[in-house]
Amino acid sequence: MATDLPGRVRPTSPGPRRASVLTGAAWLSARQERTAFAVAAAVLVAVCGWLLFLGHGIDGYIAANHLQGCNIVYFPPECQGTGELVGALDMEYGPAVLATGWVLLALPPTLGLFLGAPLLAREFENGAYRLWWTQSVSRRRWLAARLGVPLAVTLVGSTILAVVSTWWVRVVEGRFAVPGYYHWFTWLTRNTVGPAVVGFCLVGVALGAAVGLIVRRTVASIVVTAVATLLLRLLVDRLRLVLETSQQAVANVRMAVVTPGDRVLSTSGHLVQNVPHEAYELANGFLTSDGLRIPQQGDWNAMVDGRPYCPSDSALCLAHQHDIVQAYVVYHPASAEWPMLWTETGICLLVTVVLVAFCFLRVGRLR
Amino acid sequence: MSHPIPTPDELPGDLPDEDEPGTASPLAADADAGAFPAGPPALEATGLGLRYRGGWALQGCDFRLPAGRICGLVGPNGAGKSTLMSLAAHLMTPDAGAVEVFGARPGAPESRRRIAFLGQDKPLFPRLTIAETLRAGYELNPGWDQQLAERIVAQGNLSMSARVGRLTGGQRTRVALALALGKRPDLLMLDEPMSDVDPVSRQELTGLLMAEAVEHGTTVLISSHVLAELDGVCDYVLVLASGRVRLAGEVDELLDSHRLVVGAHEGTGPVPSLAGHQVVELRRTGRQVTALIRPEGELGSGWDVLEPTLEDLLMAYLRSPEATALLTPSARPGADRRLPGVSA
Question: What's the CATH superfamily of B43-250?
Answer without folding.
Answer: P-loop containing nucleotide triphosphate hydrolases (3.40.50.300)
